[in-house]
Design brief:
It is built from four helices and seven strands. It is α+β, with helices and mostly antiparallel strands.
């Protein structure tokens, strides 16, 4: 099991996120949680209509909840709001629930901008996306995480107004949390 070095803040823990690869097929990521959430999302997908938040039942995916982000997408201007963030993500990134992406103070501007572009692409295409990222600890040790982002819509053929995402940290653990 990999152990994540002790950190003092989310900014120090994740000063950089480098995308190693992106994929349209989650099978290419080799992440069981990403694949599980994708199968679940597909099970809620009907015809051309993407699932809505009302179709996502947390009791059906309890093993994924610690790694899930659920949020809203706003337009004019485009913004991402984190409504619910799982405990494992909170342990690694700090409290994001109730924050907008553009107000997360520890995110570097370049990372924030790149992340928003991904949300915009998923919202417009109405298709999920998957990535393998490399993050570095304060000591410079590289770690890999796998992510997936799926669109949700309040109306079957309406605009993407919500999302569900997952971050799979694998066996990484935080030894101590100082925030």
């Amino acid at each position: 099991m990999q152990r994540f070095p002790t950190q003092t803040s989310p900014a120090q823990a994740f000063p950089e996120r480098r995308v190693l690869r992106r994929a349209a097929d989650p099978q290419q990521m080799g992440s069981t949680p990403v694949n599980d959430l994708h199968r679940y999302w597909l099970s809620k997908h009907r015809d051309d209509a993407i699932p809505g938040r009302a179709q996502i039942d947390p009791t059906e995916i309890p093993h994924l909840l610690p790694n899930i982000l659920l949020g809203s997408i706003e337009y004019h201007p485009f913004r991402v709001f984190y409504r619910l963030v799982g405990t494992r993500i909170t342990a690694f990134r700090g409290a994001l629930t109730g924050q907008y992406l553009d107000s997360v103070s520890w995110l570097e501007p370049e990372t924030r901008s790149a992340t928003q572009e991904i949300y915009e692409a998923v919202a417009q295409s109405r298709l999920p996306t998957f990535a393998e990222l490399e993050v570095r600890s304060v000591s410079g040790t590289p770690y890999r995480i796998h992510t997936g982002l799926w669109p949700l819509a309040g109306q079957a053929y309406g605009p993407t107004d919500m999302f569900i995402a997952i971050e799979d940290y694998g066996d990484l653990e935080r030894i101590e949390l100082d925030f």
